[in-house]
Sequence to fold (480 residues):
Amino acid sequence: MKNEEITYTEAKAEIEKIVALIESDELDVDELSTKVKRASELVAFCKQKLTETDTELQKILEELNA
Amino acid sequence: MDETVFSLSELNLSVKETIRETFNETYWVRAETSDVRHHRNGHCYLEFIEKARDGQSIVAKARATIWSNTFALLKPYFEQETGQAFTSGLTVLVRVSIDFHEIYGYGLFVTDIDPSYTVGEIARNRILVLKKLEEDGVLTLNKELPLPEPLNRIAVISSPSAAGYEDFHSQLDHNNLGVIFYMKLFPAIMQGDKSESSIISALEQIYEFKHLFDVVVIIRGGGASSDLNCFDSYDLATHFAQFPLPVISGIGHERDLTVIDAVAHTRVKTPTAAAEFLINKASVTINELMDLQDRLIDAARTILIHEEHQLNAWSKDLYHHAKSLLHTTKSDLLFLKDKLKSSVKHALEKEQFAIQKYEHFVLLSLPENMLKRGYTITTKNGKTIKSVSDIEMGDMIKTQFSDGEVDSKIVDKR
Fold:
């Protein structure tokens, strides 16, 4: 999954879309596992953004001369 | 030249006497404070100035002193009433006595102060600045910015040594949500003459790295009274109002809102409250994510359960259908079996009858029976004669009857 280019907001919007699609009952069962997998990955990505230190960003900020 | 010549001291003493005689009361004077210095002997030395209407050029200036015994009373009174430290740049209404010192010259001595005048002036100034910002169309710009999600990369404007900054930092670091907050301090002088330019330069630095941050937080350690002058500045306010990142102000004061508070995206009272605000936002963000996750699991599970039920239902249907189909087929087979049985019986009976008929015919057709009925068999040399052409004149033939044989000689043939 190419998550490098997507933002938290975009990820969240995509999860919301998938959840709404699944809840709408219009989803083909064959697609279910693909969609659930994608949504789970996005949830993990969002959680990571919140709770895992982005060492790269931390380094940039530390080296920033302010 | 017979005019009197004075020594400087004689002249100064004479001026002093004249001033004392002429200005022997105290007077209420409105002026702006400048160069306020709190001396450690307890006296306060300052200058009063009056600016021209353009706010730039100075049209009057006087040195002033507040003696320590007076200052010890006036300072807390003023600060309590205005919520504002007694500093430079304040418009004040003071009661002064006038003196002239032969060495130090003209000077004012403050005997009283009317804080309500300053309160009114601060409020009036704020209203003017806010009105100007509104006319510029920038007053609500920062408030209109959406708060990004997550809100955890924070550019902090603070004095590095402020206790409020330490509190803010450790509160975010030790949040119990497990959320990571990235904080970068952009140090600034938070009071006095240099604060305005210092804060603006911090903002400019943040602007340069704005892609690294979600929000700007400006904080300052609290205190009952503080120098909030610069937070009412038009220049500073217009920078904050137009800043592309949302600004949270937590500049710690109890009194009225400053202009910065009014233009900031969100205003909180203290640095601690700023940290709480950010933690609350993070908590909402996490909860929303968890809710989405729960909904995802529920929705997927619902679909799976539904499919399973349907499969079960179908499988039951299939069993019943198959069973009933088998049942029908079995009855059909039984019926066919009976039908087959009777058909076979019928056919056999028919065959039997036919066979009996044939048997009778065959019996009738047996040679001895034929012989009995008057037919005979003619042979020549043991061979049955079926045609006249088989016999020649003079041949001996044998004729077999049912009860014996005769031999004959052919005498005629036609």
